[in-house]
Design goal:
The chain is mainly β. The protein has a single domain, classed as Sandwich (Jelly Rolls).
Amino acid sequence: MKATSIVQIKNERVIVTEWRFAPGAETGHHVHGHDYVVVPLTTGILRLEEPTGTRDASLTAGMSYARPKGVTHNVINANAFEFRFVEVELI
């Protein structure tokens, strides 16, 4: 099952996207083309399939983090409930 996304803002400086993951939903493998910030709207665990292996990341609602462009992964909701976050890509 695929995660769903809604682009909220897209201009010459940023792309702001809300992501929603049903239990078990995933993004599919992808590479980030921009530096980005993630703002979790839910507290829970996301499973990350990365080139170096699989790991679980614990996220807390409202506790943002940033990552550089070039990150390669598949993001999977490892919770029994919907997980949501907002991603802000810096262009």
